[in-house]
Amino acid sequence: MSAPGATVATMNVSDLMTDALGRIPGLVHGAVDGLSVDDLTWRPDPEANTIAWLVWHLTRIEDDHVAGVAGTTQAWDDGWADRFSLPLPADDHGYGHSPEQVGEVRASADLLAGYYDDVSARTAAYVAGLTPDDLDVVVDHAWDPPVTRGVRLVSVINEVNQHVGQANYLRGLLDRR
């Protein structure tokens, strides 16, 4: 409850999305900054994900899903795929990868952070203009019920938060080994 005469600020949908997604870049940088490629591909066991894979994957998911709802091209297709030069299909984003495929994602901290920063900037520009009505638009009829833009964006927020947390957990293990 606010004090009598106090102004109550309201948050709109674009502010909410901007805030939720705007917290991720610092977490991504915290997971990768200062690490070598060998550190980024370290695994606590042979079947575990790596920091490099987790950051690449969360970025690919955000890039793919936000570009899909925004109707834009992915940053991946605007040069990042060539910079990474991974031995994976061009449209791969990591879903369902085997331990061997996880191990194929090798990249420097600068490359991983640069790709995430580009995707994050594109996402921020897109969500800045969202209205409540925009969230109700169906963007995927392949599911029952069909997926709305709002549901897809919440899925992105959930996915990137889950994986950036995992990457930072691995960073903690790596720092303590």
Question: Outline of this structure?
Answer:
This protein is mainly α and 177 residues long. The chain has 9 helices and 2 strands.
Describe the structure.
β1 (138-140) and β2 form a beta hairpin. The protein has helices at 13-22, 24-32, 37-40, 51-70, 80-84, 99-103, 109-127, 132-135, 149-176, and strands spanning 138-140, 147-148. The termini are far apart. It is mostly helical and 177 residues long. Helices cover 59% and strands 3% of the residues. The chain has one domain: Four Helix Bundle (Hemerythrin (Met), subunit A) (Up-down Bundle). A two-stranded antiparallel ribbon has the order 1-2.
Protein traits:
two-stranded antiparallel ribbon; Four Helix Bundle (Hemerythrin (Met), subunit A); mainly alpha; 177 residues; globular
